[in-house]
Amino acid sequence: MLLTADYLSLSSNVCLFRIRKLNFNSGLNFRRRRVGGQCCKASLITNSDSFEVGRLIGSYGFMNITSYSGMQSGTDMEYMPGDIGRLRAQDVGEGSVKIRLYEGRITQGPLRGTPVVFKVYPGQQVGGLEADLMAANELSAHASLQSNSKDIACKNIQVLLGGFETKTGEQWLAFRNDGKYTAAGYAQVASEKMSKYSDLGGQKIWNPFEKNETIKRRRYFITNLLRGTIRGLAYMHDHDRLHQSLGPASVVLNTIVEKDAAYLIPRLRDLAFSVDIRFSELNGNSNTLSEGLWRRASAAGAFTPMEKRAFGIADDIYEAGLLFAYVAFIPFCEEGVMDSLSLRRLLENTFKLDVQAMREYCLADDRLLEGVKFLDLGSGAGWELLQAMMNRDFRQRPIAEAVLNHRFVAGAFL
Q: What is the pLDDT of residues 205-214, one digit of tens each?
């Protein structure tokens, strides 16, 4: 889960400077690499003189949330395979790696003038070995996903254009700038707008027609947001990659104007924790970034490469379910009524993933009523999909393609 200072508005006055005298003896190795036995066809720009860097536009860190399975017995904190799916407790901690975002552009070559967003990982002296591992893993994931020239233009995944390393060891990854916003930023803006429609006495001041039109547009926008996100996730799974860091701050949007929903293109970013699930990789030892995933897989009874692959895909679907719940509620709530962590705890700890029980709870709270109505469309199609995506048994969760084809995501009721 990501904590981010979303960059919602940028000044038109951009001061650019040139990065010079860089050391390219990087563990990242930006040279053409072999991915899946074939030479990566993605042409990455590795010459620092090809870039200009503008101002800082945001920064964020990582929050580690671990959900433990099993019944609690005294002080026993081990997993109990006989009761997988019963959520007992959560550990919440802030990661040590802090990432900075800069705007910029390409100044040389065929892509000259292309706007980019630089994602800067700190050097080992600041971020430790973990920062280098995350940067290298993100590079590897994008190189793998962009290795096939036929479908490199999967429009629902952020495109890596190149990068470099500075003398201080910072890893700079340059992504095509396809959006200034995130799903988290959109939800915040939508929630703030909901608050403006209440006076001090809590009475709604907007007329019924305006309210109905606003809700309709919001539902359509959110459905498009969800559809694009799942399409990107399906692409990753089809190309043997897990996301493993999916959340509202990991989805980049090119617009947050609800009237422009038809032009909305959500794109997945933040692949630092992505996991390679080719069978050849699942037979080997796990790396540091995927240890937690395979530990949870073992606790759930997934031991063979086939079972581990299925668990990893189902784990991504579970996080997508949490994102689904987030965009189904937060944009329809007034500011401060609900946040992502509270929503997660409500689903996991309070209602033990029983979404119908959660529906009854939300139905009794007028502040959450619009979210309930949204998921109620199509005789409760939204609740049905949410329950399937967050099924306690990972084997019963749908794959991304099935989610994409579900009548709720298809927008059959809008």
A: 667 778 889 9
